[in-house]
Amino acid sequence: MTTTPHMHALHRYLMIFLIPLTALLLTGSPVGAAPILQIDASGQLYGATGVDVDGTFYDVQFLNGTCSELYNGCDEVSDFTFRTGPEAQRAAEALLSLVLLDGAGGDFDSLPYLTKPCSDVEVCYLIIPYNYEGPEEQGAEAWVVWNIVKSNDEDRTDDQRIPYGYDTGAEPYLAFAVWSLQTQQPIPEPTTLLLLSSGLLGLVGYRWRQGRREGQHIG
Predict the structure, then answer these.
(1) Cβ contacts of residue 81 below 8 Å, gap of 6+?
(2) Which residues contact residue 92 at a Cβ distance below 8 angstroms, ignoring those fewer than 6 apart?
(3) 42 SS3 class
(4) Considering the entire predicted model, what is its pTM?
(5) How many CB atoms lie within 10 A of CB 57?
(6) Is residue 1 scored above 90 in pLDDT?
(7) CA angle at residue 166 from 165 to 167, to 5 degrees?
């Protein structure tokens, strides 16, 4: 069978558009997917990956220590992942709505002591620093997520100030939530991908028909 020029053009456009799209589908994960909870062998939650905060995805770990130890000195705004009060508040709310939930992995909402390194049976506070207050104030501003047994209070976050050297390991109900940007951001959800692929296929079809008409005209 003779291969015509327009068939060459069709093959070329398929290679240009469909192969990258296929690779995107195979290597990414859809936006909107639930975070992956990090649970140790004893059933305690110590972090999560792929937590959506304002459309950007982060990993988070719950750690004991001081602000200065865990946040590169805790003495500059650039030391923090979230650098304004509203940003830190939305991160705190994401923990409550996406991570600290009762589910198949454990009752992380109902049982605060299942959040590691907290061990108090009644309450666990997770601290998210966001702003350096300066040497005179000797503290950092932070949004705090609080998980309390049988709490009916809808407002479960609070804006507080913490000392730089305060060690959460000294208390069984405190830990820092240390965030980092996820290196590979998830791809658009299937509906968006369907629209994208449809558009690309339409473009390929248009170019193929155009090439075919040009070939017929030349002939």
Answers:
(1) 58, 91, 179, 180, 181
(2) 126, 128, 143, 144, 145, 157, 177
(3) coil
(4) 0.71
(5) 19
(6) no
(7) 110
**Quick one: tokens of 105?**
């992995």
| Burial of residue 14 (number of CB atoms within 10 Å: 0-12, 13-18, 19+) | middle
Which is nearest to 21 in space by CA: 178, 192, 212? 192
pLDDT of amino acid 52? 97
Angle CA(95)–CA(98)–CA(99) in degrees, nearest 5? Answer: 60
CA distance readout (Å), 218 to 10, 82, 207, 214:
18, 62, 16, 6
Closest CA to 126 of 99, 154, 107, 102: 99
Distance, first Cα to last Cα, the chain: 18
Q: Where are the domains of the chain?
A: 36-181, 190-219
Q: For residues 189 and 32, is the Cβ–Cβ distance under 8 A?
A: yes
**Alpha carbon distance 67, 30 (integer Å):** 34
Side-chain-side CA neighbours of 143 within 13 Å: the count stands at 24
Q: Which tens digits make up the pLDDT trace of 102-148?
A: 999 999 999 999 999 999 999 999 999 999 887 766 789 999 999 98
Dist. CA 152–CA 87, nearest whole Å: 25
Contact 178, 152 (CB under 8 A): no
Q: What is the pLDDT of residue 138?
A: 74
